[in-house]
Design a protein that fits this description.
The protein is an alpha+beta fold. It has 25 helices and 31 strands. The N terminus is likely disordered. GO terms for molecular function: hydrolase activity, acting on carbon-nitrogen (but not peptide) bonds, in linear amides; metal ion binding. It holds the Pfam family Penicil_amidase. This is Acyl-homoserine-lactone acylase.
């Protein structure tokens, strides 16, 4: 009988468990020795002039090249040396080819992700994006791909362990492989469509005003309701349920901090920028520090392996930082199939055929699956993810997604290339005219002293509706009529206050004439940054310390309201006594952060779980503003509708504290003074695959105790709905930077793990404690200075030397 495939990873696990210890030791020593060459000279295919990859003591790459083309090629080589597995999984995720690599033995996430990416046509969109590149930008992407492929052709060491376990050899790198990362990030940073589906499902259970209570806006807004044509549609209800179940989670909610100070607000007399993007934590972290130096061009900062351009950084003349706008740039349109022909759908101009194509998804160890993708005039139909077809076999109303990030004329990559090369603040603004998706808040400054802020990207203009719920697609009345002109986007320069601050809070007030969004993330971080900045002057060191601030405004400002209510006797009273003298700092060595967070978590459940029923799990996060709204204005929510008694908010607050401390006592003993936030709040810096393997899993786990919480500037988001690990730190600032426009060589950088993705490398996790404790690196110095300090130098010499294009 043929051997049934148990999965490549399962086979690897079995080998590691069963082989003799001596063999394991030999394999361990062999893999540890398989490090990329970082000294000497390597002859690589192609033409051009030699380039040097200089690695400093932390493994940070400083590339010295005669031309930009040689520099980008060297960056591709260095990225492949250090992060090849990360690059491979990134491009496969974007291309919808993960299941081909990992199968479904340990869950169906890869397959569900592949189905979504194929439906959205993300890789097709990346291929089309290549046509939007200028000749100079295309040269950068092509040179980078040459560098990656040069490494694949010249490496003397074995492929990284992940490739060995899966017995996989990577294909050559292409320009589209780099561009698809922009599409993945646009999707992750703009994923409003899931919120639309969730809200529409809640509206089947709750009234519009109740849904408004769950998501209280910063400013008053009209209650959300479904369009009259959609109310009571059973097939829509079915479609929403199926689609939510089929959609893969694209990661944790995204967030970031940024602020820029004018020279009048700094001790240097020149601007200072702070920026720290917040994404899911893992090892290695997304970011890779790099610097390219040529006679005519220098760029320094955070790159992403797989991409040639610097995402966040400076070029010696300007510096920039990003945060996500959280604007609503996606809409779901409910299409109405033609009752005479299910292969067609209705439009204001009559019946039109669904555009269809077939996608074959390979699955490791299983038969391939064929997915029929339908599209309408609004975009791809995402309600077919669970197996619908163009012949109408998919039940329910088709849901089509409109999103600028799927457009074939997306010029966002060109915008980033031009941003990398901008010489002045005006040059930054010119570059960002081409940015499409995701919409981002960008702060920038130049060495002349000008600072600015702009919310760049395409924002749809809706004929009707606010974008919060799916809308009818067949009437045309909710269609997009275009995008907001660039001049109308929120923007400003050299503010009288001397500062621009954004931490994903609302970027516009009530007087702004256009609708960016109807809801904004919690404003606590932005409020705290403004509070710290005050009206004084600040140094680079001041700003770096501010990035590490761990004061939680809900702990400081909302907790006193909770403590007004009686606390149950015993352990709850002891815990409350600790909270009464607490300053709201989320320090890892203190018990109060753990008590407060557990209380807040339990209170959200006590107030909302009974009404939301099975939908509560998707809503369960720390929601102080919703709780404050309920306690102050809508106390009926405090009543548990599943009991005959009428509970008050005082009852519910006390019971929630009692429940929280009981859980903590079960986990940490009965003395609240001995509890520590850091015992539970640990940054999840673990390799997704290797961290699960015996013997080496500990080496692959860089997790470390951390300060902060969801609301602090030093972000420490937790897995609230995870019953086993509700306080694990899973989302935060994987990269931090402070840019000193008085001396850009004095700028500060750090990433959360280390430069290498190889668990045997000395640079696998050498920056973890530096990152956790607020340390930073300076990415500067000429070749001689770096070498004198002990840097390693690898020279890439083209086999066919000759003149390069710029």
């Amino acid at each position: 009988m043929p051997r049934t495939r148990r999965g490549k990873v399962a086979a690897a696990l079995g080998v590691l468990v069963l082989v003799p210890a001596a063999t394991l030791l030999g394999a361990w020593l062999w893999m540890r020795a398989q490090q990329p060459q970082t000294n000497g000279t390597i002859a690589i295919p192609g033409s051009g002039t030699p380039a040097e990859i200089v690695r400093d003591g932390q493994g940070v790459v400083h590339i010295f090249a005669a031309t930009e083309r040689d520099g980008y090629r060297a960056l591709g080589y260095a990225h492949a040396q250090d992060r090849l597995w990360q690059m491979e999984t990134m491009r496969r995720a974007g291309a919808g080819r993960l299941a081909e690599l990992v199968g479904t033995e340990y869950g169906d996430f890869a397959l569900r992700s592949d189905r979504l990416m194929r439906t959205l046509g993300l890789y097709r969109s990346a291929q089309a994006m290549a046509a939007t590149l200028s000749p100079d930008a295309r040269t950068a992407f092509e040179a980078y791909a040459e560098g990656v492929n040069a490494y694949l052709a010249t490496r003397s060491e074995a492929l990284p362990l992940e490739f060995q376990l899966l017995r996989h050899t990577p294909e050559p790198w292409t320009v589209a492989d780099s561009l698809v990362w922009a599409k993945l990030m646009a999707l992750q940073l703009s994923a409003n469509y899931r919120d639309e589906l969730f809200r529409s499902r809640l509206l089947e259970r709750l009234s519009p005003s109740q849904v408004e209570d769950l998501f209280p806006p910063d400013a008053p807004g009209a209650p959300t309701t479904l369009a009259g044509e959609l109310r009571g549609m059973n097939d829509l209800r079915e479609t929403v349920t199926r689609t939510l179940a089929a959609l893969p989670r694209m990661g944790f909610d995204t967030a970031s901090n940024e602020w820029v100070l004018t020279g009048a607000r700094t001790t240097t007399g020149k601007p200072i920028i702070a920026n720290d993007p917040h994404l899911g934590l893992e090892a290695p972290i997304l970011w890779y520090l790099a610097r390219i130096v040529t006679p005519d061009f220098t760029v320094t900062g955070a790159t992403v392996p797989g991409v040639p351009l610097t995402i966040l950084g400076h070029n010696g003349k300007v510096a920039w930082g990003f945060t996500t706008t959280h604007s609503d740039t996606q809409d779901l349109f409910v299409e109405k199939p033609d009752p005479q022909d299910p292969a067609r759908y209705l439009t204001p101009d009559g019946s039109q055929p669904f555009e269809t194509r077939s996608e074959t998804i390979a699955i490791a160890g299983e038969a391939s699956q064929t997915l029929t993708v339908r599209s309408t005039r609004h975009g791809p139909v995402i309600s077919d993810l669970d197996g619908g077809t163009a012949t109408g076999s998919s039940s329910g109303a088709p849901l089509a997604l409109s999103f600028p990030g799927l457009a074939e004329d997306d010029t966002s990559a060109e915008a980033l290339y031009r941003l990398n090369h901008a010489g002045t603040a005006e040059g930054v603004r010119d570059a960002l005219r081409l940015h499409v998706a995701p919409q981002q808040n960008i702060v920038y400054a130049d060495v002349a002293g000008e600072v600015g802020f702009i919310t760049a990207g395409q924002l749809p203009i809706r004929r009707k509706g606010d974008g919060r719920v799916p809308v009818p697609g067949w009437t045309g009345e909710y269609d997009w009529t275009g995008f907001l002109p660039y001049y109308a986007l929120p923007q400003g320069v050299n503010p009288p206050s001397g500062q621009f601050v954004n931490a994903n809070n609302a970027v516009v007030g009530r007087d702004y004439p256009y609708r960016l969004a109807t809801e904004w993330p919690d404003p606590s971080r932005a409020k705290r940054i403004v509070e710290m900045l005050g009206t004084g002057r600040h140094s680079v060191e001041d700003v770096a310390r501010q990035q590490m601030d761990v004061v939680s405004l809900p702990a400081r400002d909302f907790l006193p309201e909770l403590l007004k209510y009686p606390t149950p006797p015993g352990l709850a009273t002891d815990a409350a006594a600790l909270l009464r003298g607490w300053d709201g700092r989320m320090d890892r060595d203190r018990p109060e952060p753990l008590i407060f967070t557990a209380w807040l978590r339990e209170l959200v459940r006590a107030v909302f779980a009974d009404e939301l029923g099975p939908d509560f799990a998707s809503y369960w996060e720390l929601r102080p503003e919703a709780l404050r709204h309920v306690i102050g204005e809508r106390p009926d929510w405090c009543d548990d509708v599943t009991t005959p008694e009428k509970e008050t908010c005082a009852d519910t607050i006390g019971k929630a504290l009692e429940s929280a401390v009981k859980m903590l006592a079960d986990r940490h003993g009965s003395s609240p003074k001995s509890w520590r936030w850091g015992d539970e709040h640990k940054a999840q810096l673990a390799h997704r695959m290797l961290g699960r393997l015996p013997l080496i899993g500990g080496r692959a786990d860089l997790s470390v105790e951390t300060d902060g919480d969801f609301f602090t500037v030093n972000r420490g988001t937790t897995t609230t709905r995870d019953g086993a690990n509700p306080f694990r730190h899973v989302h935060g600032a994987g990269f931090r930077a402070v840019y000193d426009l008085a001396d850009l060589d004095n700028s500060r950088f750090v990433i959360a793990t280390g430069q290498s993705g190889n668990i045997w490398s000395r640079h696998w996790g050498d920056l973890v404690e530096t990152w956790r404790d607020g340390g930073a690196l300076r990415l500067a110095g000429d070749r001689g200075t770096l070498v004198a300090a002990g840097a390693e130098v690898l020279t890439l010499t083209p086999r066919n030397p000759g003149a390069n294009a710029k």
